[in-house]
Design a protein that fits this description.
Layout: H1 3-17, H2 19-24, E1 28-34, E2 37-40, H3 42-47, H4 53-57, H5 63-67, H6 70-86, E3 90-97, E4 103-115, E5 118-125
Antiparallel strand pairs: 1-2, 1-5, 3-4, 4-5
């Protein structure tokens, strides 16, 4: 199994494990491993103007460029690095890009998680 396939399988398993949280939370949620590997709930897809999680997940490869406004990129990356390298949670302001280009301001709670030996970050958006 290739590295890409392994990470894809990892996120599929993680989404199954967190299914109740993803489906029941009133908040948008996504889990980010890297630009090529992230998963989200329907609420996340919806606030960005996408019809399904599959539509948004099909855009793997440029998470920041596709979904995050320029003024929020540095802070989001910096806090992700703290989560992964120092195991620090954070609450930050992030402005998202909708499918139609509109801006969506939000507050993001980011926490590091480990799943099957891989570090990633779980994000709750309000």
């Amino acid at each position: 199994m290739s590295h890409e396939e392994h990470h894809g399988e990892l996120l599929n398993n993680l989404a199954k494990e967190y299914k109740d949280i993803f489906e029941s939370s009133h908040q948008a949620i996504y889990v980010y491993l890297d630009d090529n590997h992230f998963t989200c709930n329907k609420k996340f897809a919806s606030i960005l103007g996408y019809g399904s999680t599959q539509e948004i997940e099909a855009m793997q490869g440029d998470f920041l460029g596709s979904f995050v406004n320029d003024e929020s990129k540095d802070e989001l990356v910096s806090n992700y690095q703290k989560a992964i390298q120092k195991f620090e949670g954070s609450t930050i302001k992030v402005t998202w890009k909708k499918k139609n280009g509109d801006a969506v301001p939000s507050t993001v709670i980011m926490v590091p998680i480990s799943y099957e030996g891989h570090l990633c970050a779980l994000h709750f958006i309000s």
